[in-house]
Q: What sequence folds into this?
């Protein structure tokens, strides 16, 4: 039996909060790129974003925390794409399709998101605090992915099978983005996030099919 609920639309207050957080995240990413992480303060991020320092600290504990909304944007997009798949769809195919669409850069917004992610992950490779933020973003994405997978498969969201698939799919994207950021590859073609994530997905597709078959 499936135990999922459709997400409730955000209220106006929640949308404004999310917009402010994203403005702060973009300001932080810009300053990190211009001055480096060590050369940037939370107060400077707040000033660049056009908010008071108290507003910054209302939403974020540290300057590293402030880029989480930017890093989470891609994961939000691919979960939404996966949620649009028909229940009962072939899961490996649905996963691959959603990831390909999410990691490609069909418009300026998607391209901008990839560019920011690229720069932030390069900084994160040398900053434990920022790397911890990246891992938290992925952990939260994995947890949000479970009910989406449950809706597609009819399995329980907290079942071992769904949890394993959510972890594997999330790590496929995480590892692909990290490898891409360090390799200086382009956003399209060989070595791109899409190519790397697809490769990782196909590595465990056979296992996914086996899990779904056994669960059924």
A:
């Amino acid at each position: 039996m499936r135990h999922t609920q459709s997400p409730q639309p955000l209220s106006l207050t929640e949308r404004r909060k999310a917009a402010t957080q994203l403005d702060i995240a973009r300001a932080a990413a810009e300053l990190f790129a211009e001055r480096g992480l060590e050369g940037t303060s939370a107060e400077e991020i707040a000033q660049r974003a056009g908010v008071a320092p108290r507003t910054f600290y209302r939403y974020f504990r540290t300057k590293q925390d402030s880029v989480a909304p930017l890093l989470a944007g891609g994961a939000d997009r691919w979960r939404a794409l996966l949620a649009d798949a028909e229940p009962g769809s072939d899961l490996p195919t649905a996963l691959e399709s959603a990831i390909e669409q999410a990691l490609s850069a069909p418009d300026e917004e998607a391209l901008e998101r990839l560019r920011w992610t690229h720069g932030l992950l390069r900084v994160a490779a040398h900053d434990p605090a920022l790397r911890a933020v990246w891992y938290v973003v992925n952990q939260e994405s994995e947890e949000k992915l479970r009910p989406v997978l449950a809706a597609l498969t009819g399995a329980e969201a907290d079942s071992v099978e769904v949890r394993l698939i959510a972890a594997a799919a999330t790590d496929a994207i995480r590892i692909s983005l990290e490898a891409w950021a360090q390799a200086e590859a382009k956003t399209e073609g060989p070595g791109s996030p899409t190519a790397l994530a697809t490769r990782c997905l196909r590595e465990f597709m056979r296992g996914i099919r086996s899990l779904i078959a056994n669960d059924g």
Summary: The longest helix spans residues 128-153.
